[in-house]
Amino acid sequence: MRPTAATLLPVLLAATALTACGGGSGGDPDTVKVSFKQSTDNSIHVMDDHLADIKRQFEKSHPGKKVELVPIKAPDSEYYTKVQQMLRSPKTAPDLVYEDTFLVNSDITSGYLRPLDAYLAKWPNWDQFIDTAKAAARGEDGKTYGVPDGTDARGLWYDKGVFAKAGIPTPWQPKTWDDILDAARTIKAEVPGVTPLNVYTGKPAGEAATMQGFQMLLYGTGDGTADPLYDAASKKWVTGGDGFEDALRFVHTVYDEKLGPDVATALDPNIQTIVRGDLLPEGKLGIALDGSWLPQDWLPGSGHEWPEWSQKLGLAYMPTQHGQAPGKVSMSGGWTWAIPAKAGNPDLAFEFIKTMQTKANATKWYVANSGIAVRKDVADDPSYADAQPGIEFFTGLVPFTHYRPAYPAYPKVSTAIQEAMEGVTTGDLSVEEAAAGYDETLREVTDDHVVQR
Amino acid sequence: MTRRTLARALPLTPAVVLLLLFLAGPIAYCAYIAFTDLQLTGQAESSFVGLENFRTAFGDEGFRNAVWLTLVFTVVSSLVGQNTLGLALASLMQRASKPVRTLTGGIVITAWVLPEVVAGFLLYAFFRREGTLNAVLDALHLPRQNWLFTLPILAVSFANVWRGTAFSMLVYSAALQEIPREVTEAAQVDGAGGWRRLWHITLPMIRRSIGTNLMLNTLQTLSVFGLIWVMTRGGPGDRSQTLPLFMYEQAFQNSMIGYGTAVALLLLLVGALFSVLYLRLLRTEV
Amino acid sequence: MARTRVTRPASRRVSPRISRRISRRAAADVCLLVVAAAFCLPLAWVVLSSVDPRADLTVKAPDGLTLGNFEAILTADVTFRPLLNSLLLCGGGTALAVVCAVLAAYPLSRFQSRLNRPFLLTILFATGLPITAVMVPVYALFVQVDLIDTPQGTVLFFAASQLPFAIWLMKNFMDGVPKELEEAAWTDGASTWQSLLRIVLPLMGPGVAVVTVFSFVTMWGNFFVPFMLLLTPDRMPASVSINEFFGNRGMVAYGQLAAFSVVYSTPVILLYVLIARRLGGGFALGGAVKG
After folding, report:
1. Collapsing DSSP states into helix, strand and coil, what is residue A92?
2. What's residue A210's pLDDT?
3. Identity of the residue in C56, C144, C145 whose CB atom sits nearest the CB atom of A277
């Protein structure tokens, strides 16, 4: 008789279940294992090189200690899945992990990470971090779980050539949403063959639609004092109010008046590559509501070299809806360094963070990576500000920027926003219907943890 | 159990051990997960929720839409497309001259061995508005279409035919070769025409391969993910969101592994239904 | 081949049967060429983009020819080491799967048992589970038995995941080999092993080839299994290093992706050609046109 599934299964299941339990250390007490998302910027391995440099410094200043770099090469969502798996077991949990602010709160709730407050209190450099960034990796329990190593910002990129043809004076700086729409309408009338304005929308664009598109609008509605998506006091999600509908109406206007790309292109899964690889470099797009990282796509070796971008494109901040205070809007994401709950060498891991975040190393990192600094000392450093055109502009937006309420339900909320946007983009839904649909989905995905404002 | 049966079953051992260790266990665990509210992140503790996930699925409009699209996708691309085209290619190849045979075989196989994401990208490039297909249609003075927008499920179905036909072609080529030459020649002498020979002689003789091929094709097609993901992301809206994409969105983007796995189990059910149907229809005794 | 080509110049003396065969072959050739052309159209993008310095998603004549895309990818980190890893992992997995499948298919094909069918069908359906869902428990299992981050662990899982398909296919091909031949061998005193090795296997060459190529191709393209089960970057196969071309913010380097695809697909196409050669005259098609 051969062994049957019935006899072997319990053993296997027991084995599988066991792995989730147990804590404590694994591996060598003198080795720090550092997991990070390998930069997929083609031939330019900024992060690998930088970390290799830090590793050298660290091993020199900490004799007898070793650093093991474990890069993970994958698209975002697969990276998250793998890291979450690794964090579940002490055998595979690294000592230090690179966490997207998008997911850090979710992982905190799962108990994957370790609070850093005790370390941070004794670390003078922490004072250099600006307050919004310190909050990026703060859990609902008020503790801090990660050290951010940079951020990004969002704004309006416009094509000076297109503006000249349309007769709009540059430098251009809209003060209200209507200013943007007016400029787009002028471009549509005066410069045929050019897409006036791109606002990412719908599910195919994914988080870009939510963040670069919708939230850049939504966070510019109202008086700017409270988060329009999430009510921190009651820990509940906010249903779609007037601001929500106004933001949807803006999207609807863009696509209804054909100020944006035609709907099929807007809902193309490769819209981001189309905008940054084709439309902008070829002068076929007037205004792009997009991220601070665009110039990285145009570096040599990227396959889309466009060294002239800094002469051809201008930058403007995104205004609030009616120009009400504070006047400017930006959204920010970025990554943080966190120590897993099941890390074997947490103390050494924090030592490694300290080495990475000396002022000199941090400056070097920001310059190499063209990231937006979240540290006051780095932001003031001239070698940082002059590293790349546009850096100074976006660094100036950091005080006005918002982080997403990236609590566990956020990915689902984000999808609900994309669905509402898609409805008004295709015209299948009216703004009111889309907002009502959002409310309904929001109740569903947050287990009714919603509040009306 | 006699010693003889034991000796006969002996060669099965390595396969059985591998399957039990590395597949049966994890799959059984998956079946368990489907009855919990497990999340990969954003949750302190998971709990057993019974049939809740399945109830949610049947009440979920997105799920029903995905089931329908999965059926369309499978019937069009696997049952009709890959299977028929594969058989046609295999039988044509029996008659064709060697260089043509090698060339065609090579090209069809190339389509099959390309990495899935690359296949996705090049078919996306083929079907998009400025793509090759519309250029060809223009040249033939036929109306152009924005395939990925107006007929996304059809576009991804064709894509899957392009990518997956090679397998059917190989299976049928191997099967046709096993038909003794005398049989077809005898029929030819008897004056049986091409179609009649196909229907009365060839098809019954390769019936077993047809059953196997249909089943394997269907199971493969049911789990196609990367191709559709790259081409449309399941969109526009959810007009090409088949079950695997729906499952991926729930399990990984929304990190509801429990619900996603329940959807995956239901996907298995669809596969089993299809397969049982084939086996019944073809009355193959396996 | 050549034999059938030689037709006598005086066409009137050609027998009607042969001339009919020739015209049928011409018709088949034309049909196949049409299909081949249709299959070629989408492929054009990969080939053209791989030598295009400014490749995008449009099929167009390249903006000048360049080998820059190939130069950028032909490095140890991006291409060579991952390809070697792929060969080891997929080769090992395929060999193991094929051997196990042949062994398992033999009793399943030759001896009737009521358990055969339900056993196979169950496993076969179960493999329809999206691999992404299965990887969560598999990862936990591998951590527990210390197979995580080992090539042999990945090979074992690859083999196991291909086995249901492989056994099923193999059994069907084996059913096509007449039992009478073996019975003759048995009366001559051959053992089960001998008859399997000497009689059955040589007769099902095309079938074994299909299973081999199928298993290999499936593993070759699989991203998620090695990605989850291996940790050390040096051990990752090419299906993982392909992510090199997808930028951090959804930007794709199409030219390099295309060049990599050309390199990445080559071994599998070579495998096909090699097997086709070994089996004589175009994969499983040999002898089809004995004139």
Report:
1. coil
2. 96
3. C56
Other beta carbons less than 10 A from residue A193's beta carbon: 6
Domains of chain B in start order, with CATH, are 51-282 (1.10.3720.10)
Per-residue pLDDT averaged across C218-224, rounded? 87
Q: DSSP for B24-66?
A: IHHHHHHHHHTTB---SSS-S---B-TTHHHHHHHH-HHHHHH
Return the H-helix or E-strand segment holding A80: helix A76-88
Contacts of B224 by beta carbon, 8 Å cutoff, 6+ apart? B73, B160, B242, B244
Q: Which of A342-351, B52-61, C5-14 has the lowest mean pLDDT?
A: C5-14
Taken in order of first residue, the domains within chain A and their CATH numbers are 28-148+334-403 (3.40.190.10), 154-331+406-451 (3.40.190.10)
Three-state secondary-structure class, residue A331: strand
A329 phi, psi to nearest 5 deg: -130, 140
A42 shares contact with chain C (CB less than 8 Å):
yes
Reported confidence tier of residue B272, pLDDT bands at 50, 70, 90: confident
Chain C residues whose CB is inside 8 A of the B174 CB are: 173, 206-207, 209-210, 284
Q: Is A139 left (phi over 0), alpha (psi -120 to 50) or beta?
A: beta
Percent share of chain C, pLDDT over 90: 21
Tens-digit pLDDT profile for residues A376-428: 999 999 999 888 888 989 999 988 899 898 888 898 899 999 999 999 999 99
In this prediction, the answer to ipTM > 0.90 reads no
Q: pTM for the whole thing?
A: 0.85
C282 contacts B101? CB cut-off 8 A: yes
The HSE-up count of residue A38 (CA atoms within 13 Å, CB side) is 25
CB-CB contact of A158 with A314 (8 Å): yes
Nearest chain C alpha carbon to A72? C233
The closest CB to that of C251, out of A12, A15, A276, belongs to: A276
Q: Looking at the predicted structure, is the pLDDT value of residue C3 above 60?
A: no
Runs of H (alpha helix) within chain B: 3-9, 13-19, 25-33, 52-59, 61-73, 83-95, 98-113, 116-127, 132-139, 147-150, 152-177, 181-189, 194-197, 203-205, 207-222, 226-232, 243-248, 257-282
Question: What amino acid occupies position A391?
Answer: I
A340 touches chain B (CB under 8 A): no
Task: Please judge whether A112 and B9 are an interchain contact, meaning their C-beta atoms are less than 8 angstroms apart.
Answer: no
The answer to whether C123 and C171 have CB atoms below 8 angstroms apart is no
Q: Give the SS3 label for residue A34.
A: strand
> For residue B191, is pLDDT > 80?
no
pLDDT band at C12 (very low <50, low <70, confident <90, very high): low
